[in-house]
Specification:
Layout lengths: L1 H28 L3 H31 L4 H29 L2
């Protein structure tokens, strides 16, 4: 169970950092077809990966009596990425399609 908690926290933090770096590069370098493709591919991979980890973590939180609080904290950390991603997406689409 500790492995799932650590993996979920790591996935949330790494997704946030990579997304922030890519968003910063987009703002700094401007519209680049290669960078936009990379951002889209990363977004799809991160969405699938984080969704699977979140679903597995949710089931583990329901089933497990032990570590329920730690699992719940990990799931909350993963959910904190959603508003950040929405903000990045809205800004990036306004930036690219202005």
């Amino acid at each position: 169970m500790k492995d799932l908690i650590n993996f979920g926290k790591g996935a949330a933090i790494i997704s946030f950092l990579i997304g922030t770096i890519l968003f910063s590069l987009l703002c700094y370098l401007g519209e680049s077809r290669g960078l936009i493709n990379l951002i889209v591919y990363f977004g799809v991979i991160a969405l699938i990966t984080n969704s699977l980890i979140f679903i597995i973590g949710t089931f583990a939180c329901v089933i497990s009596k032990n570590n329920r609080l730690e699992l719940f904290k990990t799931l909350l950390l993963m959910l904190l990425n959603i508003p950040i991603v929405i903000m990045y997406f809205l800004y990036a689409t306004n930036f690219v399609f202005k």
